[in-house]
Each structure stands twice: as structure tokens, then as C-alpha cells.
Specification:
The complex is a heterodimer of chains A (205) and B (155). Chain A has 205 residues and is mostly helical. Helix content of chain A is 93%, strand content 0%. Classes of the chains: A mainly alpha (205), B alpha+beta (155).
């Protein structure tokens, strides 16, 4: 074993002893401090018990209560004011919102009504135009048909007028036909057609 | 010599009747002559036959004249022209004679008429020759004057 190794071992041993000694000393000192602290705590507790007795505590409580009530009252007032302000603002906001929404709805409603009215008017106008057109067409048709019917009746009447009058004359005079009074009329016609009669008899015979 | 026809013989039927009557008359006279009746019996004759004899100045007691008249009548039946006249009612004899007289004077002296009834013509007559019809009725008159009637009916 060499010297440095020996010295190292001795050194380690010394350090070990020193450390143990420090820890022992230290442990004693901690116990002393602990006891001192305990004594001080007891003393403080005793003093505190003496200072903070029941009366003082009651007074503190009263003061604290009053202060608390004051603060509570102030806060309640502030809260009330805030609440009133908020309510007022909320009312205004609600009024504005409701007014806006109602105005929008009313404007939409008015627009819808206006559109529906325009549509209805347009439809009515178109219907009226169609009806008027149909009326004109029907009127024209009826006039044409009436005119055609009138013309047909007139033509029929004119065509058969001689027969109709002849029929009424025949019904009126009936069996009272006197040929003697008609002889002048007959001879007049015979004279007018004499030449034709002669020629036809000649050609016939 | 042409046969003169009295106006009371207006149609061929009349001629046929007269012809038949004259033949019977002639036969009777001939029989009476053959029986040597004294005097000869002459059967009575109709007015038509008498008129025909007078018109033609024929002595019916003469058989030759009778024969001649019979031949003329026979010939007349086949050759005489005829017109048909429609009347609205039965014409009186007077009317018929006037018409026949006019026709024989103006158209043909041997013309005969055939009578028809057509009540629908109301007034006037309708005369039909062999090829034509002459409507002298009131209906035709109204048709001819239709424009005047229409004018009269205008409001």
C-alpha cells in the first residue's frame, strides 16, 4: 500500500467522523430550537387569549357586521341602480328591437299585401280584358247571327210574300170569287200576250 | 167553206156532244124518210146544235147538209187548237163565252178551251197553250209587284 492510498483512507475516515460529529451537534441544536418555539407559541397563545377576549371579539364582530351591512347596503344600492339602468336599457333595447322587428314585419306584410293587391288587380284587369274581348266577340257573333237570321226571315218572307198574301186573299174572299169583275184585268193581260199566244198556237198546231 | 162555231160551243166536249147529237138527229131523220113518214119526223135539237146550224146557215132537214156538217165537226175535233184555262172557281157561262169570243176573234176562229179549276190562284186565270203557260193570276201579279209590296211594308 502506498502512502497516497493510506492518506486517502485516513482522510476519508476523518471526513466521516467530522460528518457524524456535525450531525450529532446539529440534532441537539434543533431540539433546543423546537423547545424554544414551543414556548414562544404557548406564550403567544396566552397573550392572544388575553388580548382577544370575548368582549373584544364581540366588538369586532359588531364592527364587522356594521361594516358588512354598510358594504352590503352600498352594493345593494349600486346593484339597484345598475339593475334599474339595465332594466331601462333593456326596455329601450326591447322597445327598439320590437319596434324594428314589427316595422320589418309590417313592411314585409305591407309589401306582401301590395304585391297581392297588384297581382289581384293585374289578374282582375286581365280577366276584365278577356271578358271584354269575349263580350265583343259574342256581341259581334250575336249581331251577325241576328242579322243573318233577320235577313233569312226577310228573304223567306219576301220569297213567299206573294204566296202568303195570296193565301190570305183566298181565305178572305173564299167562294165569293166573281170572275166577271176580273174580266177587264184578264183581257188586259190577254191583249198584252196575244202575239205570244198566237205564235205558240200556230207552232203547236 | 169554213165552219163557223158559235160561242156557246167552247170546248171539244161540246163539239163531241153536238156531233153525236147531229149524228143521232141525222139517223132519225134518215130512218123517218126510209119509213116514209109523212111528214118526216124531226127529233128536237139542243140549243147548241141549233146555234151551230144557224151560224153556218145549214138546213138540218137536208141530209146532205147534215153529212157535210158532220164531216166538218169530225174534222174540227181533230184539227182545232185548244188552250187550257185554269180558273179559281167555276166560270159562269157568260164569262166563258166572252173569253171564247175574244180568243176566236183575236187568236184563232176555231179555237177551243179546256177548263180547269185551280183554287190557289185566288183571282185571274192561268192560260196554257201547247208549249207555254201564261199566268194571269193574282199570285203572279203579286210576284211581279213584289218590290212595291216590300216598299209598302218598309217602316
Amino acid at each position: 500500500m502506498e502512502a497516497w492510498q493510506l492518506a486517502l483512507i485516513i482522510g476519508c475516515l476523518i471526513l466521516l467522523v467530522s460528518a457524524i460529529s456535525w450531525f450529532v451537534l446539529k440534532g441537539k441544536k434543533v431540539d433546543r430550537d423546537r423547545q424554544t418555539g414551543k414556548r414562544l407559541a404557548d406564550t403567544a397563545e396566552k397573550e392572544a387569549e388575553r388580548i382577544f377576549n370575548d368582549e373584544f371579539r364581540e366588538e369586532l364582530r359588531n364592527r364587522g357586521r356594521l361594516h358588512f351591512e354598510k358594504i352590503i347596503g352600498e352594493n345593494a344600492m349600486f346593484l339597484q341602480q345598475d339593475l334599474r339602468l339595465t332594466t331601462s336599457q333593456l326596455n329601450d333595447y326591447m322597445k327598439d328591437e320590437i319596434k324594428r322587428v314589427l316595422q320589418e314585419e309590417f313592411s314585409k306584410y305591407e309589401e306582401s299585401i301590395s304585391n297581392a293587391k297588384d297581382l289581384a288587380l293585374d289578374t282582375i284587369q286581365k280577366t276584365q280584358a278577356v271578358i271584354e274581348q269575349q263580350r265583343i266577340v259574342l256581341e259581334k257573333q250575336m249581331n251577325d247571327e241576328a242579322a243573318a237570321e233577320k235577313a233569312r226571315v226577310l228573304a223567306h218572307f219576301e220569297k213567299n210574300m206573294a204566296d202568303i198574301i195570296n193565301h190570305y186573299i183566298l181565305a178572305a174572299i173564299g167562294n165569293e170569287i166573281d170572275l166577271t169583275s176580273q174580266l177587264d184585268y184578264i183581257f188586259q193581260y190577254l191583249e198584252e200576250n196575244k202575239q205570244d199566244i198566237i205564235e205558240d198556237i200556230k207552232s203547236g198546231s | 167553206m169554213d165552219l163557223n162555231i158559235p160561242n156557246n160551243l167552247s170546248s171539244k166536249q161540246d163539239i163531241t156532244h153536238v156531233h153525236r147529237e147531229l149524228r143521232k138527229f141525222n139517223d132519225s131523220v134518215m130512218q123517218s124518210i126510209m119509213r116514209h113518214d109523212d111528214p118526216v119526223k124531226y127529233p128536237p135539237i139542243s140549243d147548241s146544235l141549233r146555234a151551230l146550224a144557224i151560224e153556218n146557215q145549214s138546213d138540218l132537214r137536208d141530209p146532205m147538209a147534215c153529212d157535210k156538217l158532220l164531216l166538218q165537226l169530225e174534222d174540227l175535233k181533230h184539227t182545232a187548237p185548244t188552250v187550257h184555262i185554269s180558273f179559281p172557281a167555276d166560270p159562269s157561262r157568260d164569262v166563258l163565252q166572252k173569253l171564247v169570243m175574244w180568243l176566236r176573234k183575236e187568236v184563232n176562229p176555231k179555237i177551243f178551251i179546256q177548263i180547269g179549276l185551280q183554287p190557289t190562284i185566288a183571282a185571274g186565270i192561268v192560260l196554257r197553250t201547247p208549249n207555254k203557260a201564261f199566268d194571269f193570276s193574282l199570285r203572279k201579279h203579286l210576284y211581279k209587284n213584289k218590290d212595291k209590296l216590300i216598299e209598302a211594308l218598309q217602316p
